[in-house]
Amino acid sequence: MAQFSLVEDSSRKIHVQVARQIARKILSGELSPNEKIPSEIELCDSFGVSRTALRESTKLLSAKGLLMSKPKVGTTIRPRNHWHFLDPQLLEWIQDLEDTKPFLSQFLGLRKAIEPEACALAASNANSEQRKELSVVFQNMTVAAENYDYDMWRENDHQFHQLIFQSTSNQFFVPFGNILSAIFKAFIDEAAEGGRFCIEEHRDIYNSIMAGDGERARNASAMLLKDDNQRLSNLEEAIA
Question: Is residue 26 packed enough to be buried (19+ CB in 10 Å), middle (13-18) or exposed (0-12)?
Fold first, then answer.
């Protein structure tokens, strides 16, 4: 049976702390889909919280697609296809896991599906201010790569990809990029630390966008997102 710990005093609301602990057990696989979670009495005792706080936490998790409560049945974990993986708070909890690699591998697959098209759209639609901002960010990336400054690289690499989504002039791409901001940071940390910076691949994307060459930008993005560049080529085995 999954073990929970007493909720500590912190700036976070009690019900959010409880929800985070339960979510971690679900996301890590310690609690399985269709499995019933412990009773209210057991959970209140484990967390040291009131029933009101516990019920608020289960409401929060239900809203994210993780739990389902039924009268006389109890609360069970919903199948993974119901989980709201693009929920910002859920993404934050995923980052808290000891092993985030399976999620990051799947996230890379999502990036491969949409980011090359975002780069192509940015090449056609970025306005002058966005191109100027992209230039500044790319120059910072160049300096970071030359000086092996991982912190500077992470910050500017994140901004680089966010700017691309914002430059598409497609209102569906813009919020998508914003929603993924948290996991972009986690992904970049995982991919960059101890590895190379892929500055030439980023340079090709940058030059293509600045030249207004959508097809070249699309191909350059696909090249950047190759498994070998992201240091995740062996992760498919982790989710097989």
Answer: buried
Other beta carbons within 10 angstroms of residue 76's beta carbon come to 16
Residue in 197, 158, 194 with CA at minimum distance from that of residue 178: 158
Task: Give me the residue label for tokens 């057991």.
Answer: 42
Query: 68: which 2 tokens?
Result: 């389902």
Residue 187's nearest CA partner among 118, 114, 95 is 95
Range of the domain at 30: 14-86
- Domain tally for the chain? 2
Q: Give me 217's structure tokens.
A: 């930008």
- How far CA 141 is from CA of 37, 56, 125, 175, in Å, comes to 47, 43, 23, 24
**Does 4 map to a domain?**
no
- H/E run at residue 67: strand 67-70
Question: How wide is the angle at C-alpha 84 spanned by C-alphas 79 and 86, nearest 5°?
Answer: 145
Q: What pLDDT, in 10s, does the model give residues 157-185?
A: 889 999 999 999 999 898 777 766 666 66
In this structure, which amino acid lies at residue 51?
Answer: R
pTM for the full predicted model = 0.73
